[in-house]
Design brief:
- It is a single chain.
- The protein is of the alpha/beta class and about 180 residues long.
- The protein folds into two domains: about 50 residues, no CATH class; about 110 residues, TIM Barrel, CATH 3.20.20.
- Helices cover about 40% and strands about 15% of the residues.
- The protein is built from six helices and six strands.
- The strands form two sheets. Strands 1-4-5-6 form a four-stranded parallel β-sheet, covered by helices on one side.
- The longest helix has 17 residues.
């Protein structure tokens, strides 16, 4: 069985290292997820990625240390208080310690992300970071996935062992976000 010629052209371009056009992307996004065409696209993407990165990857992990209906209420986020039924919960330090070990004990974890909600207790987060930093290998970076914070908090996080923060400027920032 052969794939449609339009798909074959797109995949051949990808194998040559050429990026898809906007029209190509629209075509690919319209493919049924379980189709032969989608499977061929995934196979070519896998081949291109493995070739480009010498069959190597970077292992990342994330622990959601607390969840709650979030007053940030970002339109795209499952935790937005106006459109979620997720209950409030917080992992214990022992649960966090166990999950950190589950991610890091193999020795290959590049970074462990610790996720809180838009509003968070900085002192508690610093305690979590301290516990995790003492439990995982020194080469494993700790990255926080948290709401907005200021320079003072950034310095405190760095002092506790945080290497970075996941934070992006999203499309429609201020419209779909708090």
């Amino acid at each position: 069985m052969r794939v449609p010629s339009e798909l074959e052209t797109i995949l051949d371009k990808a194998l040559e290292g050429r990026a898809p056009s906007r029209e190509d992307c629209v075509f690919l996004l319209d493919l049924p997820e379980e189709s032969l065409e989608a499977a061929a696209t995934k196979a070519v993407a896998d081949m291109v990625s493995r070739r480009r990165f010498s069959n190597a990857g970077m292992l990342l992990g994330q622990i959601g240390i607390e969840t709650a209906p979030c007053p940030g209420n970002c339109g795209f986020c499952v935790f937005g208080k106006e459109h979620t039924s997720i209950p409030t919960s917080r992992l214990s330090l022992e649960e966090i310690r166990q999950r950190a070990h589950a991610f890091a004990d193999g020795g290959d974890l590049y970074a462990l992300f610790l996720m809180t909600m838009h509003e968070f207790d900085l002192d508690w987060l610093l305690e979590v970071v301290s516990v995790v930093r003492n439990e995982i290998p020194a080469h494993t970076q700790i990255v926080v996935n948290i709401g907005d914070f200021d320079l003072s908090a950034a310095r405190r996080l760095k002092g506790a062992g945080v290497s970075g923060a996941y934070h992006v400027c999203r499309l429609r920032e201020g419209t779909d976000t708090s």
